[in-house]
Amino acid sequence: MLAARQPAAEVVVVADPDLLSARAAALGLPLLIEPYRQEAAAAPARPGRLLVEPVLLAARSLPGRPDPANAGYVLETLKRACHGCQSGEFVAMVTAPVHKGVINEAGIPFSGHTEFLAEMTGASQPVMLLVAGELRIALLTTHIALREVPAQVSRSRILSVTRTLDAGLRRLFGIQAPRIAVLGLNPHAGESGHLGSEERDIIGPALEELRGAGLTVSGPLPADSAFTRESLARCDAVLAMYHDQGLPVLKHVGFGAAVNVTLGLPIIRTSVDHGTAFDLAGTGKADPGSLAAATSLALELAQRPAG
């Protein structure tokens, strides 16, 4: 569906061309697939045409029925796109949703795009930032069980992630003096130690150190009052302690149009704000809004002068 629109820049899809052709035919969508060549990518983009860098499936793919046999195929598409960004062949990388469980079922440890791309690029501290308009929410911890979160809320991690967030807001978004609101871990940000000591013993001292280094950070703030209009007007980004502390708010505000941006990588990488939705696969009912937004933001970030 996206290929039918007039693209703002040439898009190269790393995938199995036969898979794309079959899906387009099944949905009755006109699609011209051309093999990717660097010289062809310089030609004017036009609707209805896709340049495809072929990576072949290992097994037949059926809509809505993921197969662990194709786990290697998924990872190979990510590797090819990442290498292209590292070499300067591509200006940015946009990823579609991936089912982590199916890849792990194939015997390949995989916790998510963010961690995989960080390993590929040698990035020491990737940060997951979700963007919906002016709302930006970053995560201290990402895809781990809730019971594991407190052990990951360390002073060193807070320092590292907040610095990466500050640098990313400056470099990618052109914010010269980012204001970062940091949430507490516990209800009411620990209630002066009565509902938990992490804010008093770990988060607060880390924020003091960051302030001493010149960063503009506030908190630790109670998560239940940090997302009011007044509070958000005083910051450029919110740092949440764990995945489901920050993302339900963002998805309520902008689901289907929000974008996931990975900070701390030497490349630009954006992604959708949703999962695989296997129940919609092959039906033609899936909403491509977030993928369109991720593609647009990737281009915007790539064209913005380095801050």
Question: Which structural traits does this protein have?
Answer:
11 helices; Isopropylmalate Dehydrogenase; alpha/beta; 2 domains; three-stranded parallel β-sheet; elongated; 307 residues; eight-stranded mixed β-sheet; 37% helix
Going by helix content, strand content and strand pairing, the class is alpha/beta
How do the strands line up in the largest sheet? 4-11-10-5-6-9-7-8
Q: Give the count of structural domains.
A: 2
Output the CATH topology of the largest domain: Isopropylmalate Dehydrogenase
Indicate the low-confidence ranges by residue numbers.
none
CATH homologous superfamily classification of the largest domain: Isopropylmalate Dehydrogenase
Mean pLDDT: 92
Global morphology: elongated
Helix content: 25-40%
Backbone CA Rg = 20 Å
CATH C-level name of the largest domain: Alpha Beta
Instruction: Give helix and strand order, one letter per element, not per position.
Output: EHEHEHEHHEEHHEHEHEHEEH
Structure characterization notes:
This protein folds into 2 domains: 1-123 and 265-307, Isopropylmalate Dehydrogenase (3-Layer(aba) Sandwich); 127-264, 3-Layer(aba) Sandwich (Isopropylmalate Dehydrogenase). It has 307 residues and is an alpha/beta fold. The chain has helices at residues 17-26, 38-41, 71-87, 100-105, 113-121, 149-152, 155-171, 198-212, 229-233, 243-254, 289-303; strands at 12-15, 32-35, 49-54, 93-95, 127-132, 135-139, 179-183, 216-221, 237-240, 259-263, 269-271. The strands form 2 sheets. The protein has an 8-stranded mixed sheet. Strands 1-3-2 form a 3-stranded parallel sheet.
